[in-house]
Design brief:
The chain is α/β, with parallel strands linked by helices and 349 residues long. It is 41% helix and 14% strand. The strands form 2 sheets. The protein has a 5-stranded mixed sheet with strand order 2-1-3-10-4, sandwiched between helices. α5 runs antiparallel to α12, α6 runs parallel beside α7 and α13 packs across α14. The chain starts with 12 loop residues before the first helix and ends in an 18-residue tail after the last helix. The N terminus is likely disordered.
Length: 349
Amino acid sequence: MFSVRFSLQPLALLLVLGVSISGLSACSSDSSSNATNTSTLSAAPAGTANTSNPSTSNQAESNVVRIGYQKYGTLFLLKARGDLDKRLKEQGISVQWVQFPAGPPLLEALNAGGIDYGSTGETPPIFAQAAGTPLVYVAHEPPDPKGEAILVDKDSPLQKVADLKGKKVAFNKGSNVHYLLIRALAEAGLKYSDIKPVYLAPADARAAFEQGNVDAWVIWEPYLTVAKKALGARVLQDGSDLVANRQFYLASQQFTEQHPDRLQAIIEETQKVNEWTQSNFTQAAALLSPQIGIDPPTLTEILKERPYGVQQPLKPDVVNYQQQVADAFVELKILPKPIKVQEVAQSQP
């Protein structure tokens, strides 16, 4: 049996995440990178709606499911394949797909009532819960510690994480790589205050990294492999033995309570596309390539290395791990107060 408990904390989401809806357009384009990575990320404006707005409730009860996704991952493939759209269309339900450059703005849209469901790494829901977002952890993928890393220039004198002391490190605040950086620094005997964090979305971080304006860049796939191939970037440290780096599937509390059948349909179709991808790496890469601007061979390589499977509900060890992530940010005073992950998790008792 699942246990789901909710606790909303009245904190300002924008203050915690440091991201605003008005800033999404500036963070959502990868066109400045290069020909290897030319797709434009777009986040459909979520407006100023919130969960107390009657129009939000009306939309949640309508025949539209709004799914937030990023430039890579299973939900991108699910959209590209169209299987979920076909399944729900038979029930008179349409799917609205909304793309975001990273997890924090995706969950900001969830908080604002702009989407019903989405997927992010392990850290964004921690920040979102602390800010009072009415989210629910509904499922997750297996750990992928090598799917994120700290990169340095191929000619950089930096050879180990300890060398980052006093250096400028670019990363997306509140994203999964934020926690990787914290863990890597601690393992190297450094404090978070020993580095100079530069908070940038992926496209802007890549530009800063390529121009030599930062000393290191902490980033996830597919940006990671593209940077290694296109820029010759060198991995200083990946997530191995440091972080789990799971992808979580998250829904609004309202959507979870009102439409469990739709939620289950999304999860089932996500699992099916996972299984299809495992047997069709080349076809999956060919399907994604024109949409995200990464060549098929590179995408095939990335797809072969990532883990597959959708696990539901969350097991106690996964919830406990997320709690450790949250506690680490509280200890560093990056989160203003403690949270209890179990309160917003569909989990085994």
